[in-house]
Write the structure tokens for this entry.
Amino acid sequence: MKLFAFFFLTLLLSPSLLMAEVLLKEDFEKGISDRWVERGFPSIRNKTRYELFVEENGNRCIRAISNNSYSGKGIFISFNAKKYPILEWRWKIENIIEKGDARKKEGDDHAAKIYVIFPGRSSWNPLDKRLLIYFWASRVPRGEIIPNAFEPEIARMIAIQSGREHVGEWKTESVNIYEDYKRAFGEEPAEVEEIAFVVDTDNTGESVVSYFDDLVIRTAE
Ligand SMILES: [Ca+2]
Ligand SMILES: [Ca+2]
């Protein structure tokens, strides 16, 4: 009887685990598939290097090596952010960007970021985008939403980690991209087009090695 009560309670307490519909799960244990493509600006010559990395415990993940460079590694994936609002991932950085300051153009470098890319409001301009950027900040406090220094209208940044406190540790994150988009842009999002890991050191000229793993996109319950 007691055992039954325990199971019943567990069922009641964990609806999200039982009911969530997972749209995407990437743990990189079978490598980095061809679906993951390099993305950058043609004007920035130095690209961040993305490669498969095997940790001492055998876990496989993406390692990004950035030295005065900028580029991303991402996937094109179209989905409704209201239906699949939960984005989860793990990340680890070996150092923060010393001169990194997301409020200034000259400090717009970050040890680790995740871009969630949406089309903008223009129906005729395919280059009109909205970028929701989750980042490991050097200075901006955790939880703060700020306009990007270069593209304040189209790119908004949310600090998920901040400072040195967790340097060298894997941190697991979970965000609601639907709610965050509405908070950041004050409107409903269009369908997501793309998600990318980005390591960016081109404005400060600094260096960092960062790691990404266990990307999940799922329903809230
Ligand atoms: Ca893994
Ligand atoms: Ca930069």
